[in-house]
């Protein structure tokens, strides 16, 4: 048998758990990464929205502060009454720190017609230049309200600028001049704070004048005054122009995406747009994920180690138990309970195995016991038992009684088709077997013995064995003896019936004829018939007496008075009783010389025996012949023999001489008289008196019947009780 | 069909033979030939030319069935019924007699006053068939 690999289970469990753990680590990493990425993205969007709004507020506030400052200057200039070079110089001198702080590129003071009359920073050719053609100057002068210009090219500075104009108004509202603050867009300016509002993320910020389709400023100041690119050239502008205020754009340079967020400054017609590369997020995520992966792997390794140790510990007793079971199976270890000190499932399993093993052993013993019992029943059964193959009906096994019954040896019976044993002229075997298998049923079969002869059996059959190996078990009970005895009984009844009816026929017929008056006038015929009827009545009486004797003898109810009897007296009594019969037959009886012998017997029954033997001898002797009686002592027995010289007994009949109603000539009864029961009764009587009876005979040369009876006991006195010699009852025994 | 007149009776028991003779001759008016044995019956039959044979079963020498078999070989027995008269009359025995070819079975003891009627009835039935 191949040795199973017990480590496989542990490895399977280990692989399963570790695989599941690894999968968990990877899956949780993926989920975390996805969640983190989404969270970071949302955070970034929120942050950038905030940054963008802050930038807008910052720009707004800076512009507002500068506009207020210019209004303050305008107010002071209005108080001086005249907007001219002197007033401007004075104002600039007095306000120099504020002017340099808010407007590093300087301020320009224009008179009421738009001619420059003062400047904080000297630019050649600017004073005296008329700026009234500039739309925002013209608007401020005419409306009397402050204005902020669009980005414009400085006329004298030749750089892109932004101009904030504050009209100088008298108390009555008359505009007498204008102060314009210049913000140089390409230099450090009021947008710097806004542009640098990126919270560490390298975003870019664009301030666009959408009205005039130019950049106001950006993280890159050189973009100031540059026209906004076309939709084709810039996906960002295309998105903004289609009305989107937030979204992602593919970035061909980084291969990733950029987040854009736009806020409007409607009063100026500007848009503040921030653009942040998303790669920044993933760049920040990767280390987090790597760290988590490392932690996961370390945990995984530790788990693996712990699992291996635990499993080895857990599997060791299981392996040990399996090893013990294997050794029990191959016989190298006696079958016994497996010893294990565990209370877990392994202990439970081993305990269950031990119980199973114990029960199995008990069952095996029980089976063995039953098998032995069945085997001994099979071997010792007084019925013959044979096992047949259910299909071929060949004998598989036969018990010793089968051999005795059929004469074959067990080896000779094996493999023999059962049909071969069946005598001809019976129903086919399958039909007989079918009948034999019926509940409470049986079939009778006549079976052939090996060396001739037939044995009659009552057969019952049952199907036995495993479903795929069905066998037929036949129980063969020898009923030959029973059949013989039934036949004998039937014959006896038939014979008795015949023997009773025959004399009755004569008696009844005669009486009926006489009574009917048919024989009136025929007295001789009537007399002859009545004499015959009388003889037949006598015969009927004898027959009935004999039958009663037979019945008593067979039932063991005959009471015998066994005592010492003087043999000479007994023989003389018998001679007296039969002298008339002998005379009629012309036969003489010859007794032995007195011998003073005595036998232990019943006097009446001894006379019956002697009368029977003597009357038979007389009956079969020719007239003028002599029947001889001889006596001799053989050890403790007295042997009496009666010899005649008659026709003798045919050899074929000799075995049946002592059978009831057996007569050499079946109808001799009518010729010789007698009931046909005499010798049967005689033998039973002799046996009842502890004696034996036998004969020798040759056909044509006469017969010799002998009786051997126990000698009388020495201390007892022989009784000379000839008075007890039977009367008419004793004469019944003759044949 | 002729009238039944001649009957041979084969019976070894002389008292029964006598009762039957009186019953058949005096009561029935038949002519009866009594024989003591089968052999005698066989010998007498051709000369007597019986119209019916009444046959005992248990007889010394040739018994009833043997006698029947021999009788059947006689030309004069071609159309003569044989009736068994016996004390061995168990069911299977009676059916055996019929199988042998007996025209009827009369069971002993029989009633001599009605024996002739019984025999006539068997005779009639035999000839009707």
From TrEMBL, chain B:
Keyword set includes Phosphoprotein: yes
Q: Which InterPro entries match?
A: Bact_response_regulator, CheY-like_superfamily, Sig_transdc_resp-reg_receiver
GO BP terms, alphabetized: phosphorelay signal transduction system
| Keyword Lipid biosynthesis attributed | no
Give the Pfam families listed for this entry. Answer: Response_reg
Ranges of residues in domain Response regulatory: 6-123
Q: Which UniProt keywords apply?
A: Phosphoprotein
Q: Can you name this protein?
A: Response regulatory domain-containing protein
Q: Which organism is it from?
A: marine sediment metagenome
